[in-house]
Amino acid sequence: MSRINQPSNQIKLTNVSMVRLKKGKKRFEIACYKNKVLEWRQGIETDVDEVLQIPNVFLNVSKGQTAPKEDLVKAFGKDKPVNDIILEILNKGEIQVGEKERAAQMDRTHHEVISIVASKLVDPRTKRVYTTGMIEKALDMLSSQAHQGDKIAAGSGAGTPATGDDGEAKPRPKEKEHNWTGVVTTKSAKSQALEAMKALIAHQPIPVSRARMRLRITCTTSALKQSVKAPKAEGGDDGQKAAPGTVKDRILSYIEQVETQDVMGSEWEVVGFVEPGAFKGLSDFLGNETKGQGRVEVLDMAVTHED
Questions:
Q1: What is the CATH number of domain 7-96?
Q2: Where exactly are the structural domains of the chain?
Q3: In which element (H, E) is residue 228 found?
Q4: How are strands ordered across the β-sheet holding 58-60?
Q5: Which of 94, 17, 106, 6 is nearest to 54 (CA)?
Q6: Matching fold, domains 99-150+177-210 and 212-229+244-303
Q7: CA–CA dist 213, 66 (Å, integer)
């Protein structure tokens, strides 16, 4: 094995992504190929040799300074092989990338989040999609408002709860949920897109709503006529109850807009549009009430109108 810690034969590692783990009082590093660490952790890459630039544990990768055996024994135990130590660092360590790589990763995540959001939200009046530029501006507005709110709270001493005449702390007003502070690289684009959509819908910097789902629901005609318990009416303190109905009535109550409706033999079929939030309720109702005689099929996850 090359004594790479000596200047005369030091290996220069280029195009490197370091993974760093602090164990005890020492910091250990391994040298990996860019992008391969994430592929490894996602299960895409399974060959560790394709991830590591060199199968050594370092104290400092950039200087080519390998970790002495006594340091590894003290930190990881005397019975742990070097290969297992490398795997522990690879799986648990913090990925270190350069400024350019970090900026590129942020840029990729940002564009992916914006693209997902733009494909899922529409103008509720026209049902048309917004451009990615409009979505980006709307999220920037929310991010600016959130950061401005933090500054105001910090400046007004919001960290200390106000007290009343009796010295008891007054309850703070609830902060608005679904605040958006911007894209980060530590979360997946999909999860951040969901957070962004919730924030846009909650705060409405521009008029937005979730694009509707297009479904096909089929059910036997015999099951359609069965009566079902009336759903609980909202605000039922006045003693009023929702009117009872049939399976068909309940199915149609979930559908915002019917596209087609037909009976073919002993089976009824309806194609229509529903809000994404209503899908689970409809699916559960069919499963519980029709005993396998009704089913729902997703034809389009997000129906939008393009200009």
A1: 3.30.1250.10
A2: 7-96, 99-150+177-210, 212-229+244-303
A3: strand 227-228
A4: 65-66, 58-60, 26-33, 16-23, 94-96
A5: 17
A6: no
A7: 56
pLDDT tens figures, 228-238: 876 665 444 44
Max distance between CA atoms of the chain, in angstroms, equals: 89
CATH number of 212-229+244-303: 3.30.70.240
Q: What is the pLDDT of residues 28-48, one digit of tens each?
A: 999 998 778 888 988 889 999
User: What are the residues whose beta carbons fall under 8 Å from the beta carbon of 234, sequence distance 6 or more?
Assistant: none
**CA-based nearest residue to 193, from 115, 263, 138, 97:** 115
Token pair, residue 295, equals: 């089913």
**What are the residue ranges of helices labelled H in the chain?**
36-41, 69-76, 82-92, 99-120, 132-155, 189-203, 221-224, 247-254, 279-289
Domain at 99-150+177-210, CATH homologous superfamily: SBDS protein C-terminal domain, subdomain 1 (1.10.10.900)
